[in-house]
Amino acid sequence: MRKLLKSISFFSHIARRSSSSFSSLRDAPFNPRITPNKFVSTSFRTMDTLVPKPPQISSRQRKIAEKSHLEEAFESAETTEEMLKAFSDMEVAFNEKELGLASLKIGLKLDRDGEDPEKALSFANRALRAFDNDNKPSLPFAMTLQLMGSVNYGLNRFSDSLGYLNRANRVLGRLENEGVSVDDVRPVLHAVQLELANVKTAMGRREEALENLRKCLEIKEMTFEEDSQELGKGNRDLAEAYVAVLNFKEALPYCLKALDIHTKRLGTNSVEVAHDRKLLGIVYCGLEEHEKALEQNVLAQRILKNWNLNSDLLRAEVDAANMMIALGRYDEAVGALRNIVNQTEKDSETRALVLISMAKALCNQEKFADCRRCLEISLGVLDKREQIAPVEVAEAYSEISMLYETMNEFETAISLLKRALALLEKLPQEQHSEGSVSARIGWLLLLTGKVKQAIPYLESAAERLKDSFGPKHFGVGYIYNNLGAAYLELDRPQSAAQMFAVAKDIMEVSLGPHHADTIEACQNLSKAYGELGSYALAVEFQQQVIDAWESHGASAEEELREAQRLLEQLKSKARGGSANEIPMKALPLPNNTPAASNISQPEIPLRQSRKV
Questions:
Q1: Cβ atoms within 10 A of the Cβ of 420, count?
Q2: Which of 3, 271, 280, 372 has a CA 20 to 30 Å removed from the CA of 132?
Q3: Residue 512 CB partners (closer than 8 Å, separation 6+)
Q4: In CATH, what number is assigned to the domain containing residue 165?
Q5: End of a domain among 162, 196, 223?
Q6: Tally of domains in the chain
Q7: Residue 178 falls within a domain, yes or no?
Q8: Residues whose CB falls within 8 Å of the CB of residue 344, separated by 6 or more in sequence, listed in order
Q9: Tens digit of pLDDT for each residue in 512-531?
Q10: Per residue in 108-140, pLDDT tens?
Q11: Residue 255 pLDDT > 60
């Protein structure tokens, strides 16, 4: 949730404590002096026919009373229209600085409603001007900066939003250090951290967003009682964020914690538990524990059926069919999908997705004609929905392209990926997906020998994904390895060696030095140095390849023999050319190389590294 839900009630608390211009006026004494009528003392006079003189009120007291009345009218306003009317009346009596809190309150209200972001921004700016002149940080100032960040995020001004939110974060840090009550600071700090996560996600900086989400959960853990429902939701949100970057191992404990909390608080038949189990199924799929995944999916389906949540149930059934496909239970999956497709509307997106899953099962059974028919029908549906749901359609095109790739129809696969890329390029918040699709296109072009065409796509993918998942994610390594392969085929061994060095460094961190793909990157690096004629370095890296394969034992005997053969070949070349070889140091990592990362959708793999 990106709105500061508690801010309006919190504003009233601040207004009562902090506003000298409001609260001091409301509590000002009202003691006019009244002089008694001297004629009242006449004993026989039973009725005073004189009209009493009104109390004499000074101009200052009159203004105080007027401001107090206007402030009370504003505080009692409930609807946006009532608040705007009361604020308009206040503008006559209050200066801009005195209107700061009222501007903040209206801005928060408008931002929460989400109907007029430009008007919300105008009030946020007025509040900012009122509070930004003070040298001392304050809670209202931090709240105003958070509001500026939230409104700019809603207007897709992500860089502006990030600047305001980072400033709000610094102000809140200073307030904590100065001893301001944590009960006042924490709600605003949580809103700031959550908004930072939203903005960074929209900018494609998902790894950084994870850190902000972890801080959100820490704040909730300090605020709410153990095993509260809020903590259950916080754990699930963090698990979903890890799933988005394909870090299923980190997602698992948070997902299990959310399930445990919701089961204790709400019972085994709650909708929240169903959502937890669906997510847990996805996590187990990512960990390739498909039996466990299917088990969680079945349990989730039971709950959804009990609550008559038919739309969610239908998607859960499709997920179950995909899990059956992963387990090799193709006939069972096809039977389930045929039953599901009859429950969908003819031109619906759901039907298209069901047909894609059916095509996947048929493709695995090598029933390619039936597979193509399913894909053609689904493409007909998706083509009509490009403008309605561009992200979902782009994801579907990417998945369909993989099936055509499996059937060795590479041109069709590339064409579909280019259609997906055209949709994603128009959506700045989808740059991580854009980079992922670009990486797939580059891989397929490289695979089909179109090396020069592949390089721009691979380089673009690296640029787009630079900030999305972090420079040490394993997907980054695969893109660099593919770039190295492309440069080597273009007879640019020095550029190739640089790319392979980056790939090796990343994979050693993310996958470990003995992972098969890390060993492959090291092998490629050895070959690149061999092409450069730097045999001493080529031999050094080839020995690392041998040491790594030896750690695998009997399961890698064939790979070890091949690595030893290549080592002897390099040593032979080194002996023949050592007299003329110019000593060469290992190539430095390029200063401005584009970093990249893995894709956010599991169905678009980057782990198909091209061997040299």
A1: 29
A2: 3
A3: 518
A4: 1.25.40.10
A5: 223
A6: 2
A7: yes
A8: 314, 350, 351, 354
A9: 999 999 999 999 999 999 99
A10: 999 999 989 999 999 999 999 999 876 788 999
A11: yes
